[in-house]
Specification:
The protein is an alpha+beta fold. 41% of the residues lie in helices and 21% in strands. The strands form nine sheets. Strands 6-5-8-3-2-11-14-13 form an eight-stranded mixed β-sheet, with no helix packed on it. A five-stranded mixed β-sheet has the order 16-17-18-20-19, with helices on one face. A hairpin with a 2-residue loop joins strand 24 and strand 25. Helix 18 runs antiparallel to helix 19 and helix 21 packs antiparallel against helix 23. 51% of the residues are buried.
């Protein structure tokens, strides 16, 4: 069994690296990497120490110390030079290794993607390139020489020299090895430029394969907007002469923030109206910004160790959420972020994979790039900002950048700047970082003699390894409305610090309606007993956009629960209130589209489970479908007119306003398809001049069991475009009937275009099975078997992707005994697979309860 790494065992590295020089001679099967490290003993680690360098899958060719050859042999995980061989002062160590990029199917380290050399070094990929202290607290300037006959040779920093068959790059800013990047291949640039606030000109390039340069304009525009926003919102300027982005087809993640050379999954760069949906454009904007923002929150200031991963990721997610809110609609963005949090992180927090935002142990760090670290980490930043105020937050961030620039920092360092600026004691708040689980916030109301009182109780549930927990600091944003809909108290933040706490509001003429947890001010589950009439009132009158949406969502969730358990029909409160929202032209169309969406099936399964009811995926699917039918019938008289009114005149634009109108139009088209047999959707598919409407109309048809002719037409039109075809694959599975989802996916895995070694295509098919809730949890177990079979096949080649996709099984214990037995059998088969990777082994072990 692989030994776990513990936060409590952290010790600074034994040596300091003053400078790193690399020469990389590229060859598909026999790349040679020469590394010259200028080292010295770390005065923070007194005494003499061995020098331990990480290294995996490397063929050691030579080692020399200050020019003198050494005879040492590596082991399976690295190279050790005994202390007795090392000088007591500074010295230079030179190693040469051989590696095979074309044999690297894990897509970590240096690998090849359709003839393109590419790197991915976070978290521990650099050790597959050369022997090095591959840890984030070892930071050094890098100079890199690349030798190859390929036309484009890129690395971090600024270009300093080049000639036929070689190029040299110098990055003056100290960085850890995980931020190293190298790309070489036949690429073309989409160029641009940016002038910083101080007047310095920066050359911008997006590098893509020939033929893709025309798809980069939106990504370039998003990059320029992100650079300007970071200057105005956070005072952060870019610090090199050039900023390069490269789009790569084979990539395990979304993108990587390597200093000055960001490497992106091509799906988050390439976009035209004809090939990308509005969601694609929004994701490109957000991810471009996220990786750029890492230049300061992740690169200039990095994390001391991987337990501090949330320090760079949570903060940078929060920053990209702010940016997207400013670029688009802040209320709509907030709703979308909470939907993501609840769908991904709440279920993580509620199961065997629960872990703290800053975990205290791991076996494989790649398994902790999770919604808890990213999305919940961002929520913690948002709570901290709410507690200290905008001005306090801005001053603390300025101090953070000034105090820790060029350092590898910790959560303690982060909280200390807030304490120093505001004088607050954040020791209790720190529990958000150190404890797993989603708190439940129970509330009761009391009205007496003109005083309205809210009584809160927080419950912090036990999670693996953390059975008992003390109260957290919970900021609760509250507003009060009169029965006529007027707001009598604007948003006020209450600070809850005890397990039970009450807040009084005196001097009121009438009993108010409370709007609680406005803006979703804390990542908690609000346990509040409210009538359908009260929720319909809030849906109509609440001045807080998030709570206005939340009221409708809660009402729909309760109605769906009654329909699943008792077969009840939706009452007029929800239907009438939603009709008013949909027809209210003063509301953002994107908001209205979100209000129309029913709670997801997985959300309903968790809701039932929390209520002590065993969820039946088939009944949930059926009830949700019937509730959609009821909504369509209720709006039937308005649907054709609303759809027509929302038609966007003129050419396609990816901006928020036009995207919101298309989103609402397609939501209404899905409802109309339930009534007209898909006639309007089929016409919309034929008339579509952009991918948003083409895919949206196709989804409408597939939802009602039609669309086969349109699927064939789509494939004929887009068979040449790899990213568009990912949509074609996933649509068929996502919209398949539950009892057919596994069969449809099995058929698609035999399609000639199904390249299961490509992470995007694998996720488009196998990931879609997991996303079809009732299909994955089919009573036959076919969904479980299909996913397990493919994870077993993928794991030896790409353990990182296999491990991440195994989380499809994380909720297996909330279903009936028969489904539990089927899922457990597949998890056990996965866990006992021959040659199981450390990545997948840790995940299956945790889900089976075998990991402590």
């Amino acid at each position: 069994m692989t030994k776990a790494v513990h936060l409590s065992d952290y010790a600074a590295y034994t040596h300091l690296v003053a400078r790193t020089e690399l020469t990389v001679r590229l060859h598909p099967a026999a790349t040679r990497v020469t590394a010259r490290l200028d080292l010295a003993p770390n005065p923070g680690r007194p005494g003499r120490h061995d020098l331990r360098l990480d290294g995996e899958m490397l063929r050691l060719l030579s080692v020399s110390l200050d020019g003198a050859p050494l005879s040492v042999l590596p082991d399976a995980t690295g190279l050790t030079l005994p202390a007795g061989l090392l000088p007591q002062g500074a010295f230079r160590l030179e190693t040469e290794v051989g590696i095979s990029p074309q044999a690297n199917t894990a897509l970590e380290g240096l690998y090849m993607s359709n003839g393109l050399y590419c790197t991915q070094c976070e978290a521990e990929g650099f050790r597959r390139i050369t022997f090095y202290p591959d840890r984030p607290d070892v930071m050094a300037p890098f100079r890199v020489r690349i030798e190859s006959d390929l036309p484009v040779l890129l690395s971090n920093g600024n270009p300093v020299a080049q000639g036929p068959g070689w190029a040299e790059w110098d990055d003056p800013w100290p960085k850890p090895a995980y931020l190293f990047a190298l790309v070489a291949g036949d690429l073309v640039a989409h160029p641009g430029s940016f002038v910083t606030a101080s007047g310095r000109k920066v050359a911008l390039n997006i590098w893509v394969r020939p033929g893709d340069a025309g798809k980069c304009a939106y990504a370039m525009d998003a990059l320029k907007r992100a650079m300007r926003w970071d200057e105005t919102a956070y005072g952060r300027e870019y610090d090199l002469d050039v900023f390069n982005i490269v789009a790569v087809d084979d990539f395990n993640m979304g993108a990587m923030e390597n200093k000055g050379l960001n490497i992106f999954n091509s799906r988050y760069v390439l976009a035209l109206p004809e090939t990308a949906t509005d969601d694609d454009f929004a994701r490109i904007e957000a991810i471009i910004a996220h990786e750029y923002f890492h230049n300061w929150t992740g690169n200039r200031i990095t994390c001391r160790d991987w337990f501090q991963l949330c320090l760079k990721e949570g903060l940078t997610v929060f920053r990209d959420q702010q940016f997207s809110g400013d670029m688009r609609s802040a209320p709509v963005k907030r709703i979308e972020d909470v939907l993501t949090l609840r769908a991904r992180q709440f279920r993580e927090d509620n199961g065997p994979l629960a872990h703290a935002v800053r975990p205290d142990r791991y076996v494989e760090i790649n398994n902790f790039y999770t919604a808890t670290v990213y999305e919940k980490g961002a929520e913690v930043i948002g709570m901290l900002k709410r507690l200290v105020g905008d001005a306090g937050y801005a001053r603390a961030l300025d101090l953070y950048f000034d105090r820790h620039d060029g350092q590898a920092a910790t959560i303690e360092d982060w909280l200390k700047v807030f304490e120093d600026i505001t004088g607050r004691d954040l020791s209790q708040f720190k529990r958000w970082y150190t404890e797993a689980g989603t708190p439940r916030l129970k509330v009761q109301e009391d009205w007496q003699d003109g005083t309205f009182t809210l009584h809160f109780e927080q419950v912090n549930p036990p999670t693996p390894g953390q059975p008992d927990k003390a109260p957290k600091v919970i900021p609760i944003a509250v507003g009060l409305l009169n029965p006529n809909g007027d707001e009598v108290m604007a948003t006020t933040t209450l600070e809850m610090t005890a397990q039970r706490q009450s807040f009084r509001f005196p001097g009121l003429a009438t009993r108010p309606v409370a709007s609680l947890l406005r803006g979703f001010s804390a990542p908690v589950i609000l346990d509040r007993t409210g009538s359908p009439e009260e929720r319909a009132f809030l849906l109509t009158h609440d001045t807080d956009p998030f709570n206005k949406w939340e009221a409708g969502r809660s009402l729909a969730r309760d109605l769906l629960m009654q329909k699943v358990t008792m077969g009840a029909q939706p009452g007029p409160d929800w239907l009438d209130a939603l009709a008013r929202v949909v027809q209210d032209d003063s509301l953002d169309p994107a908001f209205r589209a979100l209000a129309l969406a029913l709670p997801a099936e997985d959300d309903m399964a968790q809701t039932l489970h929390d209520a002590g009811i065993t969820p039946d995926p088939d009944r949930i699917h059926s009830a949700r479908h019937r509730m959609g039918d009821a909504l369509a019938r209720h709006l039937s008289g308005q649907l054709p007119r609303l759809i027509e009114d929302l038609a966007e005149p003129g050419p396609f634009t990816p901006g928020a306003r036009a995207a919101g109108r298309r989103s609402l139009r397609l939501a209404l088209l899905r409802l109309l398809g339930r009534l007209d047999g898909g006639a309007r959707a089929a016409a919309a598919f034929r008339a579509a001049d952009n991918m948003t409407e083409q895919v949206g109309a196709l989804g409408c048809l597939l939802d009602i069991g039609q669309g086969q002719a349109e699927l064939a037409a789509f494939a004929a039109q887009w068979g040449h475009d790899r990213l568009v075809m990912d949509k074609w694959f996933s649509l068929q599975i996502l919209h398949a009937a539950p009892d057919r989802a596994a069969a449809v996916a099995t058929r698609l895995t035999a399609h000639p275009a199904f390249d299961w070694r490509n992470p995007n295509r694998f996720r488009a098919v196998i990931g879609a099975v997991a996303a079809n809730h009732a299909g994955f949890h089919a009573a036959s177990g076919a969904g479980y078997r299909l996913v397990a079979n493919w994870l077993i096949r993928l794991d030896p080649l790409n353990p990182q992707t296999a491990a991440r996709m195994s989380t499809a099984f994380e909720t297996w214990m909330r279903y009936d005994a028969a489904r539990q037995a089927l899922a457990q059998a597949e998890l056990t088969r996965l866990h006992s697979a021959p040659g199981l990777s450390r990545d997948l082994g840790e995940m299956t072990g945790r889900m089976l309860g075998l990991e402590e």
